[in-house]
Design brief:
The protein has about 250 residues and is α/β, with parallel strands linked by helices. It has 7 helices and 7 strands.
């Protein structure tokens, strides 16, 4: 099962509400401010895609913090919480979507989660300051280059830690790949995983030099066929939707 039906099933099984297609301009534009000009719409990560991308992260997920920039209703937070992250943070600019994500966190059966420290922060990703320690930063094509370049600069300032940038539907991948601090660590048909390149001396012994088949996380989940551009993918990818087709 793929696409919206899989999303509806995920919601029903977990007692949450994440399956929707919403445009910020029709939701709470006044509360968002100028960054709305660079924001994509809300659409949840297809069920299965996050596991496939996390399998490409070139270091262990345990003891790292997962940050979803543009967390929406929190689907990716709930999926990430099935992994042993130290902490999970959703950063979302829309107050209305933050409220739904927090409600979903209250509704989920915490017994199904391996990480129980999951929180939602209402903030513009452009200004967000990351916590210390190793990071997995997730983007489901939430915004354009004008915001992404600030995020990259902020992440690049601390090269002493492990940072993976997990980018689903990487519309602005050229910007990441042109940045000297980031290198490609893995890929799926629908996304790319980058790591913050650090000087060899700063690398810890746990860090691996190769990815994909040797990734410590590659056994966590199989790849799935529900990808933007794939015939089975019934949802449009963020950034490619005509607002006129949005549900009212
Ligand atoms: C495609 S949705 C992704 C939702 C969620 N990450 C998931 O995968 O289920 C993109 C989200 O990014 C949010 N967003 C856009 N610009 C943002 C910004 N500057 N700061 C924080 N969130 C932003 C939107 O409100 C929307 O909820």
């Amino acid at each position: 099962m793929t696409g919206r039906r899989a999303g509806q099933r995920f919601d029903a099984e977990n007692g949450v509400a994440t399956e929707a297609l919403l445009f910020l301009g029709e939701l709470d534009p006044d509360a968002i401010g100028p960054s709305i000009a660079h924001a994509t719409h809300y659409e949840p990560t297809p069920v299965g895609d996050l596991d496939a991308l996390l399998a490409q992260v070139p270091f262990k997920l345990a003891d790292t913090t997962f940050v979803d920039l543009g967390a929406g209703m929190g689907r990716a937070l709930l999926l990430a919480a099935r992994h042993p992250f130290r902490q999970i943070v959703g950063v979302e600019i829309s107050p209305a979507l933050c409220a739904v994500a927090r409600e979903n966190l209250r509704a989920i059966d915490r017994g199904t989660l391996r990480c129980r420290d999951v929180r939602v922060v209402r903030a513009d990703a452009r200004m967000y300051r990351f916590a210390r320690g190793d990071l997995v930063v997730y983007l489901y094509n939430p915004f354009g280059a004008a915001i992404l370049e600030h995020v990259l600069e902020r992440l690049a300032t601390d090269a002493s830690r492990d940072v993976a940038l997990v980018y689903h539907t990487p519309v602005e991948r050229d910007l990441v790949e042109a940045h000297p601090a980031f290198e490609l660590a893995g890929e799926t048909p629908f996304g790319a995983v980058y790591r913050l390149a650090t000087p060899a001396a700063a690398r810890g012994s746990s860090r691996q030099s190769t990815t994909n088949a040797t990734s410590p996380n590659s056994m966590l989940a199989p790849h799935v066929a529900s990808t933007p551009g794939h015939p089975n993918h019934s949802q449009p990818s963020p950034g490619s939707v005509d607002p006129k087709t949005a549900p009212t």
